[in-house]
Amino acid sequence: MKIAILNNDFRVYWKGRLIYLYQYLSELNNEVSAIELFGKGSAYTFDHYNNKENWWTCLFPDNEADDLSDYDIKQKLFEALNKINPDVIIAPSIVFYAGALGLQWAKRHKKKFIMFDDAKPSQFKRNPVVQWVKDLIAEQSDALWLPSNDFDEEYARFIQKKVLVFYGFSCIDNNLFKSDKVNSFKNNRIICVSRLVPKKNISLLLKSWQQVEVSAPEYKLTIVGTGPEMDDLINLSKSLSLHQVEFLGAVNNTDLPSYYHASDAFIFPSLSEPWGLVVNEAMAAGLPVLLSRKVNACLSLLKEDINGYSFDPDSTDQITKAILKYISLGAESKKSMSVKSLEIISDMSYGKMGLQLTEALNKITLSKFKSPGLLAGLMVNLWNGKYDTSAWDVIK
Fold it and tell me: I need a labelling partner for 199 at 20 to 30 A (CA). Which of 23, 63, 110, 232 fits?
């Protein structure tokens, strides 16, 4: 079977995921190709395009989407797909160029299409007509790849339309974050790993930390990451007279596990998050987690009082209470939470991702070609997608 995996870009988490899938699927006698559209313009500006794999192509390594016309993007992608002639295309939501154009090509050539998506429709304020059109186009997929079954309710329409739904792509290489050393939970440190943009809600975390410093002055908050808010947040920390907050800026990915291992818990106060793979990282490192209820990973990975606590990210009082509730636990209770985090995250691994994908591939290859109706076919051919990363940091 020939499989083409498309994305606007394969930055950060997708790199390891993509290499694993290539190796895994190739061992099952599949011919795998990856097509990345743009070498620039990612929201993850710190991660540069540096691929040298012969099966992984970037069509516009020196460009971002705004540099190009829809026609140029479509023509070059279609040329690449014509050359590969895949049996199955795996691509992101049809909101993006890679998803919309990948679906177009698949329908024109009577091939199968799998759409992966980690966003919930309820998190976006769309005109009802726009949402209806988006759903109509997306429903032409043969399968929908979601992070977990907690997304089922939001995608009930697809399930009713007999789109195959499966799970597990929101994973990381858990082994990279594991430690051979046993955490003593005497570090007195809580870590937050995040891009420093408004929707990550670090300003409210700092305001909440004021009370933490009064009640538990021995604890330190370590913030790893950089972004446009960095200077403002440092100044806010100073204006709040916080003494136990440190900003480390950007940290090399290979060094990141050591920062988790030097901490006792992880906190993520985001106001909106399609998933939140830093939660996977922290749990793979054996950390209890303190999570905003607006982080989608919270619904799947946090078990209240078992491996951490959740909170309303709009409430400084709730954030503070969650932190202090964790701090007040004894060492054995914290170790128990650590064990539970490791158990829970073991279910979201590269291995599980590969198994679930191959099961889905086997099912859709046995099914008939899904021909769109007249209206749906028209919409599929008219919509080319977009790539506006500025919206990623907007508070939904």
Answer: 63
Helices 316-327 and 202-215 meet at what angle, rounded to 10?
A: 50
Rounded to whole angstroms, the Cα distance separating 236 from 241 reads: 9
Please give the tally of structural domains in the chain. 2
**Same-domain pairing of 20 and 152:** yes
Which CATH number fits the domain that encloses residue 331?
A: 3.40.50.2000
Checking 238-242 for CB contacts under 8 A at 24+ apart, the result is: 240/206, 240/207, 240/209, 240/210, 242/206, 242/209, 242/210, 242/213
Which tops the pLDDT comparison, 90 or 274? 90
Residues 234 and 219 in one domain: yes
Range of the domain at 153: 2-171+349-393
CB atoms within 10 A of CB 290: 25
Q: Which of 244, 252, 270 is nearest to 187 (CA)?
A: 244
Beta bridge partners of 249: 224
Residues 10-25 have a mean pLDDT of: 93
Residue 14 contacts by C-beta under 8 Å, 6 or more apart in sequence? 7
